[in-house]
Write a structure and sequence with these properties.
about 15% strand, binds magnesium ion, 13 helices, binds adenosine-5'-triphosphate, alpha/beta, Rossmann fold
Length: about 280
């Protein structure tokens, strides 16, 4: 399919908890920004872990209390008024515990909230999307209306997963949900596709994980598995030491240190895969 659109909107999604969705959103976002891309990350989880992970300064924290994804849904305004600059090239729309109430209103009485309750995020992002090369959306570990809004707004999904049998079951359920959104009657977003499955917290020293990796890669017709894997522990401990020594934020350290994180390798692979998938038809 031909697309000349500049901004790629990618949901980082898996209804299974603790598979590194938030970590991937933060560090892939930082890595793409390090590659001089203009990046917006959105925290759509009431746990607001992404917002905490980005270690906002006090002014931004106060701003985020009044201007976040929950207030955006409530007011129906464009995303413009909620943008927070985190670092050069990296912006955030903050999460908030109030997203629990947003989800309840959207689930119980969607028409009272909006005429297009599943497309509220899509509509709010439209006026600003041309300012960014990438918008990455950190999804909560559930399949409610917040996740549905994220998937309706997105072109692509990256599915982080761990190499365990139970995670494979989660992948099947994700695939079903994506199929429903892309091919339902009517389709809510016929554009939506899986960009790739990302093996995260991966342990090469465990045979069962290697076997599951091989099994996943053999399903290449169903979904692409990124060549880059994120090792368990990765260099996070080293980053923690550097943070203590330098007093700088983790996300800043990931921007200045090329060798520190496999997420930089992932960022380059994401760019390559996207170039291949969005190449205009001759
Ligand atoms: N490569 C890694 N190695 C070790 N631990 C990791 C790695 N990546 C993330 N973690 C840790 O795993 C835990 C879960 O990560 P994260 O919060 O990113 O997952 P999540 O999928 O967003 O979780 P949730 O479903 O609750 O939103 C966190 O404590 C995080 O620090
Ligand atoms: Mg999370």
């Amino acid at each position: 399919m031909t697309t000349n659109k500049k901004c790629q909107i990618i949901s980082i999604a898996n209804q299974k908890g603790g598979v590194a969705k938030t970590t991937t959103t933060a560090y892939l976002g930082a890595a793409l920004a390090r590659l001089n891309k203009h990046v917006l990350v959105i925290d759509s989880d009431p746990q607001a872990n992404l917002t905490y992970a980005l270690e906002l300064d006090e002014d931004s924290q106060s701003f985020a209390l009044e201007n976040n994804l929950a207030t955006m849904y409530e007011s129906g305004q464009s995303a413009e008024s909620s943008l927070i600059k985190v670092l050069d090239n990296l912006y955030l729309i903050a999460g908030s515990p109030d997203l629990i109430m947003t989800e309840v209103s959207l689930d119980t009485n969607p028409e009272s909230v909006s005429l297009e309750p599943e497309a509220m995020l899509k509509n709010a992002l439209q006026p600003i999307s041309n300012r960014f090369d990438y918008i990455l959306i950190d999804c909560p570990p559930s399949q409610g209306m917040l996740t549905l809004n994220n998937l309706v707004a997105s072109d692509w999904i990256i599915i982080p997963t761990m190499a365990s049998v139970i995670s494979l079951t989660g992948l099947e359920r994700m695939s079903e949900q994506i199929y429903e959104i892309a091919h339902g009657d009517p389709p809510l977003n016929s554009n939506l596709k899986i960009l790739g499955v990302l093996l995260a917290k991966f342990r090469r020293d465990r045979r069962v994980e290697l076997e599951i990796e091989a099994k996943l890669r053999s399903c290449a017709d169903d979904f692409f598995v990124f060549k880059t894997v994120i090792p368990d522990r990765s260099q996070f401990e080293l980053m923690g030491e550097l943070k203590a020594q330098t007093g700088r934020k983790l996300i800043e350290l990931s921007m200045v240190s090329y060798s520190l994180l496999p997420y930089l390798t992932l960022a380059m692979e994401v760019e390559k895969v996207l170039r291949a998938k969005t190449k205009p038809n001759k």
